Amino acid sequence: MPLAPELDTAGFLCRDPTIWKAAGIALYADLPFYTDYPTAIQTLNFPTSATTEASNLTLSFVSRLQAFLDAENPTPLNLTSAWAASKPASAPPTLNALLNLTYPILISKQQTRLVRDPFFAAYAAVYDGRKPFVDPSPLVRWAFGDTQPESALAEAQANKTVFMDWFNANILVNDSRTCSQSLLLYASTPSPQYRNLYKGPPTVPFGFSTGRISVFAEVPDVVVPIGQAGYQSDITEHAEVLPVTVDILAARGCDGMLFNLIEDLAAAGIVSTTQTGRTIAGGEILLKRGGMIGL
Question: What is the pLDDT of residue 211?
Fold first, then answer.
């Protein structure tokens, strides 16, 4: 379901970096595909020591990427401190103060206007004024948006623009030779998500996180699988594995450079094709009659 014109971005999943780049060329034909790469790396919320299998993989990947780019040591980025040091004078003191309502306002106001209202009207016209069934998650968001004044949408759009302009001028800056002066990397810790555990009801998605940098700043964000880490499954009562990934961000309009970079990293053996199966290297998929077993 579309969320908001300000945020929605075409994207795709692919196991093979070469096929992924070919699809990128077709999708981003109007963008330049730089073949020179940044020699500066920033890291956000990265492990500082290899205390786990996942952190060891993450730090090893950064080291190999640094050597490939002939880059200096990665620079840890603290977004909170960077914002406080260089934010616009009229902006709120923290990113959360600026962006806490931005995402929920954008998706609720735009989705109700562009999706819910015309869909409900069309449905009612066909089915004698009835409303369709809708999952709880969008209903919670729509209900929140309905309580906000119409002026909230323009304010959210303005706050998104403030962040985008600041981020693109201070964090990921364009470069005439390499498209982006630096690369920004962030990682997430893999953890099992068991499907037999009941979660709480859906809530309004307030706040700001690293996963929203890309859509707020309109910069490319590429998720690269770099290995897998083991865990003891509560379901199978066996050792299983989860993928370990790193997100790589570049300056606005540098999607083509990232497509080239990932393909070259694959050629250098730093990233690899993900195989079909229960591990990134392939392997048997555990099946039962009628479907897959949840690990």
Answer: 93
Nearest C-alpha neighbor of 173 from the set 34, 21, 33, 40: 40
Does residue 38 contact residue 183 with C-beta atoms inside 8 Å?
Answer: yes
**Integer Cα distance of 60 and 63 in angstroms:** 5
Res 67: pLDDT? 98
Note the pLDDT of residue 280. 85
Residue 291 pLDDT? 53
Whole-number mean pLDDT of the chain? 93
Report how far residue 176's alpha carbon sits from residue 179's, in angstroms, rounded to the nearest whole number: 6
Task: Check: CB of residue 140 under 8 Å from CB of residue 104.
Answer: no
- The answer to whether the Cα torsion of 46, 47, 48, 53 is positive or negative is negative
DSSP the chain: ----TTT-------S-HHHHHHHHHHHTTTS----S--S-EEEES--SS--SHHHHHHHHHHHHHHHHHTPPPPEEE-HHHHHHHHS-TTS-SSHHHHHTTHHHHHHHHHHIIIIIHHHHHHHHHHTTTPPPP--HHHHHHHHHHHTS-THHHHHHHHHHHHHHHHHHHHTS-EETTTEES-EEEEE-------TTSPPPPP----S--GGGHHHHHT--EEEEEEEEEEEE-TTTSSEEEEEEEEEEE-STT-HHHHHHHHHHHHHTTSS-PPPSSSBTTB-PPPEETTEEPP-
Q: Is 90 exceeded by the pLDDT of residue 108?
A: yes
Q: Which two tokens stand for residue 231?
A: 């865990």
Q: Please enumerate in sequence order all residues whose Cβ is within 8 A of that of 185, keeping only pairs 6 or more positions apart, or say none.
A: 41, 42, 43, 44, 46, 62, 65, 74, 246, 247, 248, 249
